[in-house]
Amino acid sequence: MRTILLLQAFAALPSVLCTTSSKRGLVYVPSAKHPTDDNIWVQPGSDLTWYYNYGYEPSNPFTGSQMQFVPMLWGASDTSTGTPFLDSVKSQISGGANISYVLGFNEPDGQSSTGGSAIPADLAASTWIREIEPLRKLGVKLGAPAVTGSPSGFTWLQNFFTQCAGNCTPDFIPVHWYGNFEGMASHIGQVMGTYPNMTVWVTEYALPNADLITTETFYNQSSEYFDRMANITHYSYFGAFRSDVSNVGPNAAFLTQNGKLTDIGSWYLGGVATNNIPKGAAGKSALFAGWSLLVTAAAFWLFI
Ligand SMILES: *[C@@H]1O[C@H](CO)[C@@H](O)[C@H](O)[C@H]1NC(C)=O
Ligand SMILES: *[C@@H]1O[C@H](CO)[C@@H](O)[C@H](O)[C@H]1NC(C)=O
Ligand SMILES: *[C@@H]1O[C@H](CO)[C@@H](O)[C@H](O)[C@H]1NC(C)=O
Ligand SMILES: *[C@@H]1O[C@H](CO)[C@@H](O)[C@H](O)[C@H]1NC(C)=O
């Protein structure tokens, strides 16, 4: 009897421990409409260790926080020949910032109507060689272009590496996924099989437009899987916004329409269920486009 009780006690431990993870980060653009939402992610006890905002420069509300900033070169333009991204990251480092990683292009195989940066592989390769590859010498780890989860992503990446002709050497490969858990695990398996020399970051993922229990089940299965897989080193769930503006459906959001943490939001930060039920905006059905669409206008001026 004693033994059985002891075993049960041990069996319960992992699920408690697994509710926090140092792999977790935040994909988030500070809220102009609800600036107090920015503070939620850096509250005491939050387990988030890193963040990105689709841009070069850190977000002001997170200055001095526990989250390490990861700069991103969102897109590329064929009229640009300078090195604004490289210069920015170098100056952040010389100013004392701890920059360990950078992220390459956001959904370059995707169209701008769905938030993609829509860059041809040859332009991406030449821009990478000029703006990103030199950071390797400074000890910064480089993230490959973050293609969409569709088959065109694999084709685009293959073309990118062909155009690079051996001059692009990413250390890790970001993955985006919008769909169910089985599809995501299979997709990540395919990415790892195709690029065995890189670790994986899942930098945008969610199950869009599902009911609450299905969404929470997806969230739990995904976290457990990412935490268990040694070669998945970082992940950032796509849900750090209010449910009434969510374009992945209200149940996927970290915040309710009133800015309170949902169960998923609280679990992601390492907390317990809040039982706050997210609601959508009445009569408004958002077209799914990834968060990047919201920041396209803001990001654009950064790379022209
Ligand atoms: C910089 O960040 C990395 C994690 O990405 C951490 O391991 C390292 O200790 C940090 N260095 C300093 C000086 O804070
Ligand atoms: C990883 O593999 C790709 C594709 O084969 C290659 O182009 C890239 O340079 C490799 N990365 C490193 C760090 O060797
Ligand atoms: C992935 O994991 C395997 C086994 O744990 C390891 O041998 C391999 O080096 C890892 N790959 C990378 C890119 O870290
Ligand atoms: C998800 O995990 C939490 C613990 O982290 C648990 O309380 C909850 O019941 C789980 N929900 C589902 C639907 O599996």
Small molecules bound: 2-acetamido-2-deoxy-beta-D-glucopyranose
- Uncertain spans, ≥5 residues at pLDDT below 50? 1-18, 292-304
Overall pLDDT: 89
Question: Mind telling me the C-alpha Rg?
Answer: 19 Å
- Please give the oligomerization state of what you see: single chain
- Tell me what portion of residues adopts beta-strand conformation: 5-15%
Query: What structural class is derived from the secondary structure elements?
Result: alpha/beta
Please tell me the CATH architecture by its name. Answer: Alpha-Beta Barrel
**Head-to-tail CA distance between termini:** 70 Å
Return the CATH topology.
TIM Barrel
Count every helix, treating DSSP H or I runs of 4 or more residues as helices.
9
Per the principal axes of the C-alpha atoms, what is the gross shape?
A: globular
User: Order of strands side by side in the largest beta sheet?
Assistant: 1-2-3
Kindly provide the name of the CATH class: Alpha Beta
What does this protein look like?
By secondary structure, this protein is α/β, with parallel strands linked by helices. The protein has one domain: Alpha-Beta Barrel (TIM Barrel). The protein contains 9 helices and 8 strands. Strands 1-2-3 form a 3-stranded parallel β-sheet, with no helix packed on it. Helix 4 links the parallel strand 4 and strand 5. Helix 4 crosses helix 5. It is globular, with a radius of gyration of 19 Å. The N and C termini lie far apart (70 Å). The chain binds 2-acetamido-2-deoxy-beta-D-glucopyranose (NAG) (4 copies). The site of one 2-acetamido-2-deoxy-beta-D-glucopyranose has 5 residues, from loops.
